[in-house]
Amino acid sequence: MPLDMGSKGTCLIGGNVSTNAGGQYYYRFGSLHANVLGLEVVLADGRILDLNSDKPNRKDNTGYALHHMFIGSEGTLGIITKVALACPQLPSSRHAALVSCEDWSAVRSTLSEAKKILGETLAAFEFMDEAVLEVMPAKKRMLSGKHAFFLLIECQGSHEQHDAEKMEAFLEVCMDNNHVVDGVLSQDLQQVHSMWELRESLNPTIKALGYNYKYDVSLPLDEYYQVAMDMRERLRNHGFADDAQVMSWGHVIDGNLHLNIVRTGADNHEEDLELTKCIEPFIFETVVARGGSISAEHGIGQSKNKYLPMAKDPSTLALMHSMKGLFDPHGILNPAKYLPHEG
């Protein structure tokens, strides 16, 4: 399966395709647009489309690639009932490292070295900031000390010894150049799993702390963490410094940031409408101003559709509405979702 994510124990493939879900191995295997060979789709009028799903071919150039219209459309154009996926071979070798960096420049340099030294074996490059690691149980952190950023790097290949040597050479270069100040290298597959357990437990851990405002965005690498800094400054300036904490992680290798604002004050498990007004639409305006996207892999739904005009020009939105009208003229498929309301 070319898709892997923290919610793999509960999510469904239909939902993954409908939202064009990404996950931690996006850099290695690409998006679902790159891996879905075909779909079976039921339209609003009951017609069933076989879009290279029954006998899927990797190369099929017979007409419009219509299945791509339904990937990421969140059920607003049709209901996906069958998926044909291209599934890569499982790697026979996996190695991971958990390292810490003191500043954002060091994170960027470490990523550059990973691409250069690990090359085709580089599978994942995950980022976590100090704020979220501080609330994790000590036994899960694996690294001691306070550092600004933590990175989880995985390589996958076909030769155990060769891949291990590449990972060791990569860490040696990063430490010699002071890009990485501390780190631990997996010694077996169980330690690889332990590192991913840390990364995948971030979400449930902060959920237990208080009400979560969650934002899934993408940004250019040089602007990636600036949005979190902007948000912290805005909370301070509007008197929420003691009531909310910004915690971030994400798939930095593809520009995807998961920015979380956690309520820490009294009655902290309920939404604070004043805090919501402080966060939105500021967070989306900031992301767009810094050249990013307001939705990287979690879709639009009914919480972001009103902000879609920030991301798409009027001509593009008009065409999207026309497509919705063509496929679903009576508006019965996932109504009031995805597209902004007209008029």
Record the strand order, biggest sheet: 7-4-6-5-9-10-8
Number of discrete helical segments? 15
Low-confidence stretches: none
Principal-axis shape? globular
Name the helix and strand elements from N-terminus to C-terminus, one letter apiece: HHHEEHEEHEHHEHEHHEHEEHHHH
Q: Based on helices, strands and strand pairing, what is the structural class?
A: alpha+beta
Radius of gyration: 21 Å
What does the main sheet amount to?
Answer: 7 strands, antiparallel
- Mean pLDDT figure: 94
Roughly what percent helix? Answer: 25-40%
How are the SSEs placed, and which strands pair?
Blueprint: H1 13-19, H2 26-29, H3 32-35, E1 36-42, E2 48-51, H4 67-70, E3 79-85, E4 93-101, H5 104-118, E5 122-129, H6 130-133, H7 138-141, E6 149-157, H8 160-176, E7 182-185, H9 189-200, H10 202-207, E8 212-218, H11 226-237, E9 244-251, E10 256-263, H12 273-279, H13 282-289, H14 308-311, H15 314-327
Antiparallel strand pairs: 1-2, 1-3, 4-6, 4-7, 5-6, 5-9, 8-10, 9-10
Helix pairs in contact: 5-8
Explain the overall architecture.
The structure is a single chain. The chain contains 15 helices and 10 strands. Helix content is 36%, strand content 21%. The relative contact order is 0.13. The chain is of the alpha+beta class and 343 residues long.
Short description:
The protein has 343 residues and is an alpha+beta fold. The protein contains 15 helices and ten strands.
Throw out a few tags for this protein.
343 residues; alpha+beta; 7-stranded antiparallel β-sheet; 36% helix; globular
